[in-house]
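Q: What would this chain look like folded?
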Amino acid sequence: MTKHFRSIVAWGLTVVMATSPAISYAQPPEGKDGGTLSYVTEKAAAAVIIRPRRVLEAPAMEMLPIEVLTAAGKQNLGIDPIDIVEILAIAEAPGEGPPGYGIVVRFSKPYELEKLRLPVNWRLDQSQIANRPYLQSQNPMTPGFYMPDDTTLLIAPHPVLLEMVRNQKMPTPGPLSRLLSKADGNSDALAIVLIEPVRPMLGAVIAQVADDLPPPLQGVTQLPDLIDAAKLDLRVVSSPGASLTLLSPDESKAAELAKLLNNLLDTGEQFALAQVAGEVQGDDPIQVAAAQYTQRITKKLIDAVRPTQSGRVVKIAHDSESNMQVATIGILVALLLPAVQAAREAARRMSSSNNLKQIALAMHNYHSVHGKFPPRASLDDNGQPLLSWRVHLLPYFDQAELYEQFRLDEPWDSDHNSKLIEAMPAIYRNPTSQAPPNLASYLVPVGEGSIFAGAGGIPLRDITDGTANTIMVLEVNDEASVIWTKPDDFSYDAAEPLSGLGKAHPGGFQVSLADGSVHFISSTIDKAVFLRLLMMADGQAVRLD
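A: My prediction, written as structure tokens:
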């Protein structure tokens, strides 16, 4: 339990060091009886201060669902968030057991401890400290609740709570409280983490995963030795801006830290640009332009957070309101591009599904006329294939005029018929396909045991495994697509029946079953199960649903 907890804390500190969080609203501590800082214990290694009332009442926050937050706070906690002037949360460095923690809540008006809504399974005893109400927990891992005055609430496990009370009466400044006391009074958010107390543990945890890190990220392993403390400031109410300040042991390590952070940003920029480029499919001018915009904004955002060094301090600052707005727009566009691409792919997949449904309907219409499905190819007098089933299905979906242009007694590549290859109906092409023109994406299975294994067409009654359990038409990968008039289809290997399949759409491909229904099959489907779906009469029927 302790080892797991240490890992979580260590990775949390790594994130604080390597990134710039953007959610916490705070103001440097203030108040009576020594102020909020007087509750910061000497062993505290991390702190976050927030001021809900200041933020919720700010004009810039008027679009927030204040009413919902108020109702939820009262219902779930017994506290109206807008009545909270300040919250200070501290965490001590891990020792032999889990690290201690504590929370100080300052209210704008007197509050009664009895109003708190607490879990019914928390065993809390009514008690007092200095003649003030105290709900003491019987579980050492569960916090107690104490009000040293009418507008202050302390929340902490019993030993930490007693230490906080003692420290408030006789303040003993520690490294963390000293840094907090120097905080910028204009900050709306403040978070400070001391790296020095957990450096050995943090280094050990990072060393455990160092071998799994790609080469461009190996520099992350150096971070614990280059940072003594990290401070995040965020302003949202007035003069929007943010800064991440990192304190190094000395000036030379600060220079090394700045270089490392720049290298990590370069790696992130390359990855982001490659990711955006990879989302673009085809030459849609709007999609290409959106990608170009996202790439341009990505570069500007990266440049905006380049670190600067001054002595032992490395700082990343972003102080322009207009830049922050542009950054927000840029991030939204970056998020939107994959969403747009996903929507496009969903539309293409639906269109492809409709193609399969029309092909299956045409197959059944052919069966209604001839008493059997079309053969996979027409044959000449010597048994040589001439034209694909795709040609002979043309009259059954309003392509009779094109069908009549073919010379049915000539092969697909004769001088006459080869001229018709470029007239392939759109119904035979998966809209997602990037294959050359006039290549069909929809093939029938012609391997042993499948519907189209034989030279002639078969009637429905021969599909003894059930039409709802047998594949009739498949959507193949681009590299497996064929010239639509050519009598060439999906000849599978029983050992690798999925070869040529699985890439028609992200995550898989679609098939039409012999009953005319269309289904999506994951590229990770079990080979044995898929092989059973290709068989029409092996007595081992399986269902896709």
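The two ends are 42 Å apart (CA to CA).
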